[in-house]
Amino acid sequence: MAQKVTITDVARHAKVSRQTVSNVLNTPGLVREDTRRRVLEAVETLGYRASQAARQMRTGRSRLIATRIEPTRDDIDGTVYDRFLHGLTESAAEAGYRVLLYTADDDQSEIATIDDLLAAYEPDAFVLTDTHHGDVRTSWLAGRRLPFVTFGRPWGMPEGPSHPWVDVDGAAGTAAATRHLLDAGHRRIGFIGWPPGSGVGDDRRAGWARTLAAAGVDPAGLDRASDGGVAAGEALARDLLDADRPATALLCVSDSLALGALHAARSPGAGGRANGGAGMPIAVIGFDDTSAARAMGLTSLSQPLAEAAACCVALLARALDGAGVIGEANGGAFDEARSGAGLGAHGPVATPVGTETSRSPGSTMAPTAPGGPPAQVLLQPSLVVRRSA
Amino acid sequence: MAQKVTITDVARHAKVSRQTVSNVLNTPGLVREDTRRRVLEAVETLGYRASQAARQMRTGRSRLIATRIEPTRDDIDGTVYDRFLHGLTESAAEAGYRVLLYTADDDQSEIATIDDLLAAYEPDAFVLTDTHHGDVRTSWLAGRRLPFVTFGRPWGMPEGPSHPWVDVDGAAGTAAATRHLLDAGHRRIGFIGWPPGSGVGDDRRAGWARTLAAAGVDPAGLDRASDGGVAAGEALARDLLDADRPATALLCVSDSLALGALHAARSPGAGGRANGGAGMPIAVIGFDDTSAARAMGLTSLSQPLAEAAACCVALLARALDGAGVIGEANGGAFDEARSGAGLGAHGPVATPVGTETSRSPGSTMAPTAPGGPPAQVLLQPSLVVRRSA
DNA sequence: GTGAAAGCGCTAACAA
DNA sequence: TTGTTAGCGCTTTCAC
C-alpha cells in the first residue's frame, strides 16, 4: 500500500502551513511565487494528491459523474451505448471527473438507485441515456435541482426551456440516407422502423417520409415496423420486396433490422421481381454503424458518440464549474458541441459521404440559456457508404 | 437537492446517541433489541444512508471497485469486455460495491492512472482485464499488496501461487468445437488464430491442436494466423480452402475472423473443391458469441461473462470483507465459481450443445489459498450451434 | 448496553 | 501573504 501522503506532510516538507498548501492548490493567485513553487515542488516530490473523501466532506463536491450501464442486452443495437460510455469516461477524465456506474431495470428503480447514490457517494451530476416519452427520471432530477444531462431529447415534453441535453439528429440522418438512395436512382424506398410511439424511431421515420415527400414520391405501402431484431428485419424486408409495388431499397431504423433486411435482399431472386429481372441489387441502409454493419458491408448512419459524450461532459462542466473553465477543462469539446448544434457547420466527418448539414425542421431547439450558448446540442450523424448501398 | 440526513438526525429522532446509531448499523449485536428497532425505524423514516465520504475517512474503505474501460475499439471483438462490465456492475452492486471507471492506453499509463485513483478515491480493489505476457500491472499491484483480481490468467508467469484470477477455459472451448466438427464428419479442420505469443490465442489454438492429435488427424498446413479482423479472416479462409488439401471446416479464434471466414465459405464455389463438388458446406465456428455472430448465424463459443464478473466480485469480496460474508453478499455467485473451477460440474449451459466438461490439461491451476477455496477460477465456455456448423 | 471524546484530511472563514 | 481555528459525518477507542 502506497504510503498515504497528506497535506500536512507537504506543508512540513515545504515549511509552510497546511492552509498555504491548500491555497497553492485551490487558489494559486493568493500565494507568492516562490512559496508557490516550493510547495509545488514538495507536492511533486512526495507525490501528493488530495484525498477526494476529505475534500468532499468539506466542499460537498465529489467530482463523480454517475451513469447507468444497461443490463446486458446481447443484441447488436445495445453496443451503441457502450461506445458512448467509452467517450464519456475519457471526456470526464479530461475534465477532472470520474464515472461511477450503476444499473437499473426501469425508470423507477433507476430513480431509487440515484437516490441511494446521492446519499452515499454524492455524485456531482448524472448522465441519463435512453430518454423516452413520459420519462419520470428527468422530472425527478429537475425537481430536486440536481445537475444532469441527457443523451437523448426530452421526447414529448412541451416546447420551451428544458434540461440540458445532447442528441443526434436522427431525422437528418435518415433524410440524408434517403437522398442518397434517391440520387442512386431509387424511387420505391421502403422504411423498416420501430412501432410508432418511440421518440427516436418516429424521428428517424420522419426524416425518411419528409425527404420522400420533397421528392414527390408517395410513401404509401412502403412503411413497416417492428421492435424485433434480425429475424424481424428479414421478414419485413421480404414483405416489402414481395409487395405489389416492391421496394428497391430499404432504409432501416437500426442495424439489427437492417442486417435482417440485408439477408433478405441478398438472398437469391430478391432483386429479381423488383428490378424487372436484372436490375440493380436491392439497397439496404442501417442505423448506428455497429461493428456488425462494418463486418457485413452494410451502409449505415454513424452517430458521433464520442462527440456526444464530450458535449455531455462540457455541459455538465459548465453547470458545475461555472463558465470560463470549460475551454481549458475539456480540450475545446464544447466548441464542437456548439458548431454541431445549428450554426451551419457540422461535426467531424471521416466518411466517404457527407452529412446532412441543414438543421432538421422538426427538431426541437430550446432557447439559449441566459448568458451562454445553448444547453441543447444536436449533432449530425454521417452516412458510411459500403457495399449494401 | 434532497435534504442531507446525518447520523445526528437519526440519533435525535430515535432519542439515542450518535454512536448507538452507528452501532446499530455496523455492530448490531451490541445493541438491545428494542433500541435497535427504534433506531432502524428512524433510519427508515428519515431515509438515512451513511455518507461514504465520511465513512471512508474513518475506515479507509471506499466500497469502490475500479476497472478500466477500453478505448473505443469499433471492432466486433471489443464488445466482449463491455458485456463483462455489465455483469461486473451488477454483481458489485449486489455485494455493496460500486464500479468506478477509468481509461488508459497502455500498461504504463494504466499504472499511473491507478496510482492517481488510489490517492484520490482510494478504491478498495481493482479488476484488471486483458492480461498478457509480461504484464507489469499485476506485479505493480501485487508489490503494493493492493487487492485486485484479473479477468484473464497470469500468462507466462511461473507456476505456483499467484494473484486471484478468473478466466474462461479457451482451450476447452476450442477442443469442444473441434470435437463437434469431428463428430460431424470433418477431418481437415483449419484453425485461424492470432499470431503466436498471445496467451489467449495460443491457449485456444492448443485446444484445437490437442483434439486433432487425439483423433489422429495431422494438423500440418491447417494453421493460419493474423491479428486482423474480418478482411483478414476472409483472406486466410480462402487460403485454407484453396490449399492442396483444402480444409472442410474452419475454427476461428474470434468472431471477427470467423465472420470473414464465413463470407469466404459461403461465397459461390467455396465448398466445391473441398467436398468434391457437391459435399456438405464449409463449416465455420467463431469465438465469443457476439451479436454479429448471432445475426449471421455463426456458430460460436460463448463465454460466461456474467459469471466471470460475479466470480471476480466474489473473490474480491472474500479478500475485502473477510470470509463468511460471501454467501450472503453476492447471492451465491462464489459457489458457481467453485463449481466451474474444476470440481467436475460445469456452469449454466443454455445452449443446444453441451460444454467441454473436463479440465483442460494445459491450464494452470494454482494451489488453493490456505483455508479457503481456490482464488483461481476457470470457467467453461459453451458452444452455441447455428447454421454455420 | 450506551454515551462522551477524538480524529480521519481537507478547506472556508477569520486572525495575524 | 501566511497561519490558526473550526468542523464536514462518521466510527473507534474508552468510560460509564
UniProtKB/TrEMBL annotation, chains A, B:
InterPro entries for this protein: HTH_LacI, LacI/GalR-like_sensor, Lambda_DNA-bd_dom_sf, Peripla_BP_I
An annotated Gene Ontology molecular function: DNA-binding transcription factor activity
This protein's UniProt keywords: DNA-binding, Transcription, Transcription regulation
Chain residue ranges for the region called Disordered: 345-389
Presence of keyword Transcription regulation: yes
Record-given protein name: Transcriptional regulator, LacI family
Domain spans labelled HTH lacI-type: 5-59
